[in-house]
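Exercise: predict the fold of this chain.
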Amino acid sequence: MRACTDGDIVQVFVDGVASGSALTCLDGYALAVPGVAEGSRTFAASVARGGLESERSGTLIVLVDRTPPAAPIVLTTAGVVGPNLTLQGSGEAQASVEVIVDGVAQCTAVADTNGQWQCALTLASGSHVIAARQTDLAGNGGPASAAGTFTVDRLFASGFEP
């Protein structure tokens, strides 16, 4: 959209419908369009000066998403494991999944288009509590997953690596 000058009126269109509000341009402009429904929306704008309105701008498609994702699922290995693990799970497609071990973020993975993710870690011997949380592409953070526990044993676990 072209820049405006003081006194111009900017009109926003959402899905081809006037948003119902026009804002006067003063040293640039800021537009607030409350109440836009979630989903894929098409935005455009026009500028009016002296009673004449410009053509509408090119459209911008925006995915409006205010809904936090559900907690991801972490597939944990029960019992005793070796120190080098690859945790796997599922969540929202293309969400960023943060794996938390003993209350500390240990690694981050991005879920694929099917929501599958995996994250490799190396842990010290002992009992550990693991959970994960995810953030979707819109930046909405979800709740932590249910916590799981397992024990790392460097000497007796299958898959031991010196």
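Check your answer against the key: The longest strand covers residues 39-49.
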